[in-house]
Amino acid sequence: MEPSWPPRIVLEKIARHIAGEIVMSEHPGSVLRKWREIFAASQLDVARHMGVTPSVISDYEKGRRTPGSLFIRRFVEALLDIDSERGWSVVSRLAKMLQLNYLGAVIDMREFETGVTLEEIITRVKGIPINSYLLDERIYGYTIVDSLKAIMSLTGSEFLHLLGSTTQRVVVFTRVTTGRSPMIALRVSTIKPAAIVLHGPRKLDYLAVWMAESERIPVILSMARNIEELVKNLRQLVFSPR
After folding, report:
1. Is the pTM of this model over 0.85?
2. Tens digit of each residue's pLDDT (9 = 90 or more) over 153-164
3. CA 55 vs CA 44, 52, 68, 80, 169: distances in Å
């Protein structure tokens, strides 16, 4: 079972942040050293986790070698492994600094390599459209949200940020009872997702249906058996060739 903190999505965001800084730097060796020191890890610590000698780490940091994508990935994973053994102290600070704490309400978040149609999304979530609006544009990612955690733990600005991270994506709300709360969040958000999926209820509150129609955004009621099936089916869209 995954730990409640940090969620996998937070680790992925931090890993991408570190890796991106290394890749974009004109002096990647200096950035490698910077992040190693931020994580309070010695060259020996990192080398042991990567299965190399400390001299290899030294060569990269001094610019005698240029890191490729595989090395950078292993390097970042080593830093996260080290921090895991120490109770996630650095990751916790980075999550706060990068304003990632809102992701605690996110069950899964993925990007599609190529766009998918709304019809593909409906099929994967075993969905039933509840309003009359369809989408011609392609969708490039999804976010699956635990609606109860979102309502109980997020501030208003964090909730809007969660909805507005990328407009051409579908936001899936799980553990929904009547559908009213997610639809209110959609209605007050200044940035709208491409489509909304609601998982949990078998029948929506009349006000939720009215808001779905008035917002002119496709809203789908998912009949998937459970959240695990929902996540599995949507992840298949990420990796399946199209």
Report:
1. no
2. 666 566 656 654
3. 9, 8, 17, 21, 45
